[in-house]
Specification:
By secondary structure, the chain is an alpha+beta fold. It is 18% helix and 25% strand. The chain has a single domain (6-230), classed as Jelly Rolls (Sandwich), CATH 2.60.120.620. The strands form four sheets. Strands 1, 2, 3, 6, 11, 13 and 15 form a seven-stranded antiparallel sheet that branches. A four-stranded antiparallel sheet has the order 4-12-7-10, with no helix packed on it. 42% of the residues are buried. It comes from Nonomuraea mesophila.
């Protein structure tokens, strides 16, 4: 993929708090990612489809291969610069006719990062539509400060909480994506997704990239999913890359 019209892309991101890159990853790699989700769910039957991530990442060679793909890093570099680390990554896979909603929130309210310089790449593994619970954003809300969080136990939802602020959903934009598309968003933007009411699975991979000058302030060092992916290591300690073991890991091209 060749990134074109960089200035307009960055202007869109600065204005709206998000932008979309189409057809970033090829079909074969996306098919591998889709199979990877099924493999993970078979291997971890105790985990919901929305809970595949964090400590699983640095032990999984395919996952590390995916988040370190040069095409994704080239996009991340536009927003965080040339020295790039992985902070965290999750698959959020909503099964047909189910899958929990994600209530309105700002990612940065949950994260131990200082300063809050981080960008999320949301990679569409499946088609994401209004019917199957695509990502929804409030354009321009990234200019707001980080809001307090409040618990929400009255509705079954992925995070168990939401931003403690009234959200005008008439301003929401549904981000319809095809497999291989990448949506990029700011840590302060208000976003959410509905439950999947369709017969099709909706799976996306969230990838949180930080410049290596951003400090992970968690007491866990190295942080469970922190990986150095490009450039100077900066201020953090990182996990080692995993070694592929055929009897232990899912096979993939280039393993």
């Amino acid at each position: 993929m060749v990134i074109t019209d960089v200035d307009r892309t960055l202007q869109d991101f600065d204005r709206d708090g998000y932008t979309i890159f189409r057809n970033v990853l090829d079909r074969d790699l996306i098919a591998d990612a889709s199979d990877h989700v099924s493999w993970l769910q078979a291997r971890h039957p105790d985990r919901h489809g929305e809970d595949l991530g964090t400590e699983l990442v640095p032990r999984d060679p395919f996952w590390v291969r995916l988040v370190s793909d040069e095409r994704l890093l080239d996009i991340a570099e536009l927003f965080v610069g040339p020295d790039i680390a992985l902070f965290a990554s999750h698959y959020i896979s909503k099964p047909p006719f189910s899958g929990k909603p994600v209530l309105w929130h700002q990612d940065g309210a949950y994260w131990p990062l200082e300063p809050m310089r981080v960008v999320t790449l949301w990679l569409a593994v499946d088609e994401a539509t209004t019917e199957n619970g695509c990502l929804r954003v409030i354009p321009g809300s990234h200019r707001e400060d980080l809001h307090e969080l409040r618990q929400r136990d009255d509705v079954d939802n992925v995070l168990g909480s939401e931003s403690a602020v009234a959200v005008d959903e008439s301003k929401a934009v549904d981000l319809v994506l095809s497999p291989g598309d990448v949506e990029v968003h700011h840590p302060n933007i208000l976003h959410a997704s509905n439950a999947n009411t369709s017969p099709k699975r909706r799976c996306g991979l969230t990838i949180r990239y930080i410049p290596t000058s951003t400090r992970i302030t968690s007491e866990e060092q190295p942080f469970v999913s922190a990986l150095l992916l490009r450039g100077d290591p900066g201020v953090n300690v990182y996990q080692p890359f995993p070694t592929y073991v055929p009897s232990k890991h899912r096979p993939f091209a280039g393993a």
